[in-house]
Amino acid sequence: MPPGSDAITIWSLISVRREAVDSAHLLRHEQEHVRQWRELGPFGFLHQYLGAYVSGRWHGFGHRAAYRMIPLEIEAEDAARRFMESGGGAGGGGGASLP
Ligand SMILES: [Zn+2]
Fold first, then answer.
1. Which end of the chain is less packed: N or C, by CB atoms within 10 Å?
2. 28 C-alpha vs ligand 1 centroid, how far in Å?
3. Which sign, positive or negative, has the C-alpha torsion 44, 48, 53, 59?
4. Which residues make Cβ contacts (< 8 Å) with residue 34, sequence separation at least 6?
């Protein structure tokens, strides 16, 4: 688990810190990464993800800022927010189902 992150998605394996497992928002966020990973392929995903991150750091942004500027992260956050706004996180149970 990289320091400072709650979860990481590799291929279709989602690893989440135990304290974060209950977060429907986080799970939906990571599911979006799974979708991106499948759509772009491992090389395309890592190329875009790391390329955007390294570019951010290269331009003088800190870890947190560079991370938030990654388009794939913005897309995942948007998907998670829309999911939560549509009531996906409410009610408990059944909201987020892992692939
Ligand atoms: Zn993410």
1. C
2. 10
3. positive
4. 9, 11, 12, 14, 99
pLDDT of residue 7: 73
pLDDT in tens, the chain (99 residues): 566 677 766 665 666 666 665 588 888 998 999 999 999 998 999 999 999 999 999 999 999 999 999 999 999 999 999 999 998 755 444 445 555
> Alpha-carbon distance 28 to 88, whole Å?
9
- Cα(99) to ligand 1 centroid in Å equals 17
Domain residues of the chain, as ranges?
7-85
How far out from the chain centre does Cα 42 lie?
15
Query: Which of 3, 7, 55, 13 lies closest to 29 in space, CA to CA?
Result: 7
Quote the ligand 1 centre to 8 CA distance (angstroms). Answer: 7
